[in-house]
Design goal:
Layout lengths: L13 E4 L9 H11 L4 E6 L11 H7 L7 E6 L7 H7 L3 E5 L6 H10 L3 E6 L17 E5 L14 H12 L5 E5 L7 H6 L4 E4 L1 H4 L4 H9 L1
Parallel strand pairs: 1-8, 2-3, 3-4, 4-5, 5-6, 6-7, 7-8
Helix pairs in contact: 1-8, 2-3
């Protein structure tokens, strides 16, 4: 089982490497490498080939990976009709389940169900989605994920306007105990600006797994 932090500390920078950029032939070992290198969470990108133009993995693989790491599994559902699978991902070992606002016609109900299942509830926003969609569900949220690329593939470049969007979400969150996460094109070169805009959870795939030294890459992002 993982060890999700019991208290919210917005000043703490958390690094959540995305296993989308890992070696899929050695995912168990990759998780162990991340934990040894000082990662805080494991970001798991789930894609269905419909909501986004890519296919990745599902509950059986997450369940197989769960014994290989005690880090929190931050499961990002880039799928249509996510309500059908929430319990499956919880049972597989998800600690955080993040759904896309664009995929949930009854967003409040979906977030309530994630919490009822015992997981932390997150909402992700695509680059073109306005932050106002969060206004009526703030009290159901544990995390907001701002996509700084168009979702579907790793290795894309950071969209500069995402900094303004992060600042908007941070202002909307106020002093609520909600993590603000950013995903897409995050590197040591832009991590400081991302953090200054309000993000406290940084998802990075290529910036971590393409490095010869995972620990040094994670340290560079955290600094």
């Amino acid at each position: 089982m993982s060890k999700f932090p019991p208290t919210f500390q917005p000043e703490q920078v958390l690094i959540a490497p995305s296993i989308l950029s890992a070696d899929f032939a050695q995912l168990g070992q990759e998780l162990q490498r991340l934990e040894a290198a000082g990662a805080d969470w494991v970001h798991v990108d789930v894609m269905d080939g419909m909501f986004v133009p890519n296919l990745t993995l599902g509950p059986p693989i997450i369940q197989a990976l769960r014994p290989h790491s005690s880090l929190p599994f931050d499961v990002h559902l880039m799928i249509e009709q996510p309500d059908r699978y929430l319990a499956d991902f919880r049972d597989a070992g998800a600690d955080v389940i993040t759904v896309h606002a664009e995929a949930c016609p009854h967003l409040h109900r979906t977030l309530s169900e994630i919490r009822r299942l015992g997981c932390k509830a997150g909402v992700s926003l695509n680059p073109s989605t306005p932050v106002q969609v969060l206004e009526n569900v703030l009290d159901q949220l544990d995390l907001v994920l701002v996509m700084s690329v168009n979702p579907g593939f790793g290795g894309q470049s950071f969209i500069p306007h995402s900094l303004h969007k992060l600042a908007q979400v941070k202002a909307l969150i106020g002093d609520r105990p909600i993590h603000l996460e950013v995903d897409g094109g995050v590197t040591p070169q832009n991590a400081e600006a991302v953090r200054a805009a309000g993000a406290n959870v940084l998802v990075a795939g290529s910036a971590v797994f393409k490095s010869a030294d995972l620990s040094a890459a994670i340290t560079a992002l955290r600094r």
